[in-house]
Amino acid sequence: MAALRVPATAGSVPLGAVAALRWEDGAGAIERHDRRRRAAIAADLAPGATLGTALAAIEALPAWRDLPPGVSPSATGDAEVMGELFAGFAAAMGLGVLCVYLVLVLLYRDPVHPLTILVALPLSLGGAAAALHLGGLALDLSALIGLLMLMGLVCKNSILLVDEALQRRRDGLERAEALVAAGLARARAIIMTTLAMVAGMLPILAGFTPDAAFRVPMAAAVVGGLLASTALSLVVVPVAFTVADDLRAWAAARARRLVGGPEPEDLLPAGAGGDGAVPTMPRP
Q1: Which residues have C-beta within 8 Å of that of residue 68, sequence separation ≥ 6?
Q2: What is the CA radius of gyration of the chain?
Q3: Between the CA atoms of 166, 169, 175 and 180, what dihedral angle is there, to the nearest 10 degrees?
Q4: Confidence label for 234 from pLDDT (cuts 50, 70 and 90)
Q5: Most buried of the four, 49, 141, 228, 240, by CB within 10 Å?
């Protein structure tokens, strides 16, 4: 092979004159990803292991943390698909919350009370995470679908409570009395709706339906989120309503002082009474 002649400027020269030839092991093919050379490492999951747990264990390895210069990790295959899936669902949930907020702003003609309604969403997420953890279930595609279902269910319970409180204030009650009356009036509807939804999810949670392995995380997320939000929203939502009401009254008074307008005798928020009160949603 050293005698193999290669083209040169003038004629040709032996290959041994321009290169050192020796036998070594090398890659059968050079793979590239995003125009960079890639060395792929693949493995099968052990029984009962999840992809997220396996990736976390790999990233905790010392060899993974101390990679040589010029070498950087990049997720491919199922790991890449999982990252894209979670990013897509996060964008969908964020866009959904934004759309719900904008619709509530249009209905109430007020940017404050919709925020009070959305306070219950983090409560449901905590309950769903606790249910998945207690059941030893992974946050997979099915559980993400359950979280999307929770958005509408939880917002509905908060809307019932806040709308009733606004209606009672329009009837002339003070804020504290209106919140207590709204809780007493709407507690039955909120609890019955939650119990009905939980009862519908129990057969799925128990695995009595086809594709139970796929559906169980969704049922667990819905049941845990509904129970947590129902138990806490009757306390947290009135507190958030009170804080938001005080902040809006303070902002309104400060704005009037800045523009030099007259101070009102009673700084009640819109929806508490008067001809210019903000209309509430129709009472179900």
Answers
A1: none
A2: 31
A3: -70
A4: confident
A5: 228
